[in-house]
Amino acid sequence: MSELLSSYLAGSWFTASDEGRPVLDAVTGQEVCRVSATGADLAAAIEHARTVGVPAIQALTFHERAAILKAVAKHLTAAKDDFYALSTHTGATRRDSAADIDGGIGTVFSFASKATRELPNDTIVLDGKPETLGKAGTFVGQHIYTSRPGVAVQINAFNFPVWGMLEKFAPAFLAGRPSLVKPASQTAYLTHAVAASMLDSGLLPEGSLQLLCGSPEGLLDLLGTQDHLAFTGSAATAATLRQHPSVVYGGLELGVEADSLNCSILGPDVRPEDPEFDLFVKGVVTEMTVKAGQKCTAIRRVLVPADRVDDVISALSQRLSKITVGNPADETVRMGALVSLDQRDEVRKSVQALRASADLVFGDPDHVSVVDASAVDGAFMGPVLLRAHDGAMEPHEVEPFGPVSTVITYSSVPEAISLAAKGGGSLAGSLVTHDPAVAREVILGLAPWHGRLLVLDRDDAAESTGHGSPLPSLVHGGPGRAGGGEELGGIRAVLHHMQRTAIQASPDALTAITGSWFTGAERTVSSQHPFRKSLATLRIGDAIVSDRRTVTADDIAHFAEFTGDTFYAHTDPEAAAANPLFGGIVAHGYLVVSLAAGLFVEPNPGPVLANFGVDNLRFLTPVKVDDSIAVTLTVKAITPRSSADYGEVRWDAVVTNQRDEPVATYDVLTLVAKQD
Ligand code: NDP
């Protein structure tokens, strides 16, 4: 008998008390492992996540969490070959496995790097700018994101056993939430191998990752308001989960990513001799055959102008005829097996349903010639292309989760949009066109129905990542039938796991709560210039109030001549007088900012290493000849970099005139040494 997969729960490996159910190799039909969770103490696992995992992760800053993720990704990269070997049991070719294994590890790397660059080295995130709530500036609003004391449970699909876990784990971990992963039983052995490698690495704080191989029965009963359940799989299971009392009454957040009938549209401008025609055909064939079409983003509906349908079908058929099917261990094989014989039966049933209103134009759902004769027991199926009858509804409703697509014709752009919308909401869509007007009309029509859209043409083709690849930095998920959930999308995915709260308070209270200085809060002006302080002694609120400087007509003329910025408002008194906003010569905004730098700078070598930019620069009041300006510079935020001996300091800069009116406001961004 094969190995019974263990689960990692509440700090130790657990093996079920029964024999479990067998999981068969997709290619050979041999037993790979057995799966059962009988006897697992799920209540202890959830308690462990909340009481051990939550405090352990939340004691770390975002940058420390990111450093752990990066180390985990490196660790997994080193063990990749083992995962590839296991992945062939799922029916995957090397290319399919790359999308799952390298795609998953790459997603962890990407989140680690994004978090280091885009999140503070802190445990909370400020959302947007402060809102002034009182005229005197003593009552201010600020939205903040904080980590929740709950667990992120994943119930995953069989088709991406590695990527499915890692793309959910990375953002949850960054957000301070421990994960409990329940992989689909059919491919759980691969998820198990990767999770075991992560746990064995010793890199993760205890409690941050748990694994449940087997039935999750009773799990949802244990979850509540501070927890999150991310589900990927069938719409039917999603519907069951949506009705669970913990979701309906208990405040459990549920994110669903379910089957969707994604489309690719050939633009009306594209003729068979255009490069876009080939790109379209290649894209459809790739999506039909990668992972044997078992991808939530695969192209199920191929929308083409009615007068080009024969050309498209002929080009697709020609390409599909070159797809070799068989044992993925054979390097000549282009398409492996479906994940199981049951899954193949399901796909055949779907093809049967589609044939009620569509003709088979390529392939045979019931027979396929297989490259490696020793693998004839596998769940193989060749690519199948159908052509829908006019007005057919089945192609918009039936999802064959395999190498199957249906060609549908349209006669106008509005009709193409309305056909795409009949899918009821999709994860991904693509449009192949080189006409900007078509791109705008179609994309604006499609966007409300999609989570992600690719516009493919000769200009972006070489770098395009294709129709079906979710990317860590872009949103993955779609409305309606696609489940309504949203994953990935860079830091958005982290923030989805956190609670956004509006805080109303005085500037001093907000400064204390957030660790960032707010306008109106106390400043510390001392005899020591803050540029003389390293991060060891620099504090939020440390400030310098500069002397005044008069801006003369000569200053403005000199700046105009020196920089070449001779815009009339700075050089032509008559024209400037006619300007309704200025009524006379005014200083260049950049002159004001440059003079301000001259007013606040401390010129000697010291802990300030560089100025790497300004944010939010606004010129509020024109500076006229002989106005005098001064600047107040205050430490607003300090972000030490974990991997360097310096950090970022954000300074609030306010330039005022002799009437104390603000003439310019901005944030100055500097790099400052950690030690003197
Ligand atoms: P399921 O919805 O049956 O399974 C998905 C996950 O949910 C698995 O981990 C499964 O566990 C678990 N599960 C099943 N029933 C329950 C339940 N009552 N409570 C909690 N968890 C449950 O989908 P399949 O994997 O069987 O695939 C069926 C169809 O779903 C495919 O043919 C395809 O149409 C669609 N699908 C969509 C995907 C997408 O990414 N959008 C991906 C994969 C499939 P277990 O494996 O142990 O049963």
Automatic annotation (TrEMBL):
Residues 546-643 form the MaoC-like domain. Keywords: Oxidoreductase. Residues 462-483 are annotated as: Disordered. Residues 14-443 form the Aldehyde dehydrogenase domain. This is Phenylacetic acid degradation bifunctional protein PaaZ. It holds the Pfam family MaoC_dehydratas. Belongs to the aldehyde dehydrogenase family. Belongs to the enoyl-CoA hydratase/isomerase family. InterPro entries: Ald_DH/histidinol_DH, Ald_DH_C, Ald_DH_N, Aldehyde_DH_dom, HotDog_dom_sf, MaoC-like_dom, PaaN-DH. SUPFAM superfamilies: ALDH-like (SSF53720), Thioesterase/thiol ester dehydrase-isomerase (SSF54637).
